[in-house]
Amino acid sequence: MSISGVIFMNKNDRRSKKTETALLGALSELLGEKQLRDITVNELVNRADLHRSTFYTHYSDIYDLYERTENAFIKMLNDYATTNSSNEYKELFAGIINYLDSNRWCSLMFFGQNCEPTFQAKIFDLLIDRYLKICAYEEQVTKIPEEWHLLAAYHVGGNISLLKYWVQNGFAYPKDKLMEMLFNIDIGFDKIFSLINKSGN
User: Fold this and answer.
1) Alpha-carbon distance values, 39 to 29, 42, 56, 73, 116 (Å)
2) Given phi > 0 = left and psi -120 to 50 = alpha, else beta, which region is 154?
3) Could you read off the pLDDT of 163-199 as tens digits, one per residue?
4) pLDDT digits (tens, 9 = 90+) for 85-123
5) Running DSSP on this structure, what letter comes out for residue 142?
6) Rounded to whole angstroms, how far apart are CA atoms 17 and 138?
7) DSSP state, 43?
């Protein structure tokens, strides 16, 4: 998975990509220090070593930069989930973990102490949708029981919380062990789904 070059319209423009990288890196650093509403354009461009005019060529304000980055990341995850041939929720989460580990600026921006709540609401909805579609595919059902929605909300919410803890504690917990933990939790939820399906029959 890669988010590089998906924010600027001209994806083949090397100068735009370089500017994008500098701005996103600077924004991620600043979000490690303060909330988005407290970051000024002057702070951002000074940290990125760019001119204000360069910033305003592409964005109207800080929120525009953040929102477009957020939407690009959500789109990337959605595309990955849609094209992932494994049809397994754990493989989707493994892809997310690997991406966050390789792109820690992105991790800090979206899962750090000062992250905006909008992103986590969007990723929650995306993962819930994917989770239920996978369950429906595996169980060969067209109508999803209400119990599945409740269990999916609990499972996805817990996994997102684990990711937040991992990122906010400096990725100290080994990535492989984190994946193993999530996979074992997933196995446990498979058993719960099985019990729910039996009780509903």
Assistant:
1) 11, 8, 15, 21, 13
2) alpha
3) 999 999 999 999 999 999 988 887 777 777 667 766 6
4) 556 777 778 888 888 888 888 888 888 888 888 888 998
5) S
6) 41
7) H
